[in-house]
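Hey, can you fold this?
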Amino acid sequence: MNKLKSLLKDIAIGLLLALFVRTFFIQAYKIPTGSMIPTLLIGDHIIVNRLSYGLRFPYLGYIIKWNDVKIGDIVVFEFPKDRSKDFIKRVIANEGDLVEIRNKIVYVNGKKIEDKWAFFSDNEIYPSRDNWGPERVPEGHIFVLGDNRDESNDSRFWGFVPKENVKGKAFLIYFSIDYESGKIRNKRLFSLIK
């Protein structure tokens, strides 16, 4: 009976420790869509650093902040229209910035950004997708886009993301599988996300 009690105690401690780590330090996510191609592929499994910007409690937001979200960061956040869903996108503009998109080209504060992350799957220009703004990012918010600009559901369609919704910064692909072929993408294993 003592062995069973000891085993159950060890399991309970392990589960509590895992829950603590997942809640406050790191969290694993699987990439389900192609909105971040070519940076992140469908089937990539990533680790998000939940301490990148501060100490955040679920449903309460940040208790202590030590870093601000930076332009170029790839962040996981609670979708503003349904906080039960997590999205992953790249930060393009921060609070106070004036954002405009003209014919797929992004301008922040009147200057064309160095958009080395952008990927376009077609050459067509669609007004609702490829032209947006100008609009100023409200205080406490960010403007995010998917790297695969033609195939991303992002701030162009549903607005700005409250910074309090940001769960953390994506930093590592620890596993990757091509679900169509069933093959593991060995070159992507344990690669840093940029």
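Oh, and this one too while you're at it.
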Amino acid sequence: MNRAQTLIATLALLALALAAPAPSPRAADAPTLREGVHEGADFLIGVPAKWNGGLVMFAHGYEGESPGRGSVRTEPASGYLTTRGYAWAASGYRSMGYRPDWFMADMLALRERVITELGQPRWTIIHGQSMGGHVAIASMELRPDIYQGALIECGVIDGVGLVDWLQAYTAAADYLSGVPLVTTPRPDFDALVAGTWLGLMGAPGAYTERGRRFDSVVKHLMGGDLPLRLEGMKSRYTMNLNPRDPGAQRAREFSRHADTRHIHYAIDAGLGIDEATLNREIPRATPAPGARSRETNPVFAELTGTIRAPVLAIHETADFRVPFRLQQDYRRRTLAAGTGHLLVQRAVRWAGHCAFEGSIRERALEDLVAWMERGTTPAGDDVLGDVTKLGLRWTPALHLDDPARRP
């Protein structure tokens, strides 16, 4: 082949190469998903193509009381994490129900599985949603040697304080209506709520006189006149009512820990009843013997606020399943423990539970990692300050009924 022919052949090959579609990424460059069962719990492990040593452990929320082990859920920020070189792992838990004590152990066991497969992480974040927030905050207090940070999303950040709140809510509904809710067992309880209690009280936006008193008490139980509070109440107004013994299908194990002896009830003036009467007359719940023992079951004991690593929490202001009040209560615990500098809280002005846009979660993760790695404390909200100003910085779009939209 002469020089001219060689040149023509080379140009032809070059033209073919330019016209051909770009090769797809190699399989080795894509993240992989591993799944299986470990110590009685289903699991998922997401592994990036090039792991940088960061690990996020995802603890999901409550999914009911059915028999059998729980269902595993993908880490909500899985794509965000693996594209940045972080691995993640999620446990389905050994059972269903509300057992953060068991599930905390399941998360620890899964982390050991990750170490066996991938090696020792340079840091581990625990990411808890809803009940998983209880798992996460208990882990931060009780196992500071394991986790270097936590993201708690719409979470039960004050632990057993949630069941105290639910029983306080029901006791106030009982007293202010005159309907014996606390002592009525199921299934009579549900019929009593639908057939008698609702008629006496009305509903959010259409209260009777008794209902207006109840709403005022609930406002203070929730943590103040929070943005979109009434909107958030609507979906769980009656669902949050529970008798003292909720039965097998209503988290019996959780309810036996309820203690409302410390609850202070408040009410606005001019509603025909005063705080002293409320706090004297509303029935109180006491926990089963030993149920809140720090020695025998510290996960169900009252939390102390003693954290040793960064915790970033995001929470909807009008979450009526896990009320924003728990954020305020845990803030007070950290202030008393001298650890308030390790807790940053962000409110989102929405009426829902765990309904965050991905961008909110991803920004929180990015800020948490920067806090852990570079010591850059992220911005947050003062949850004990003016609640009407909460979340203005963190809410992507204000709800149509948000009072902040009004001139």
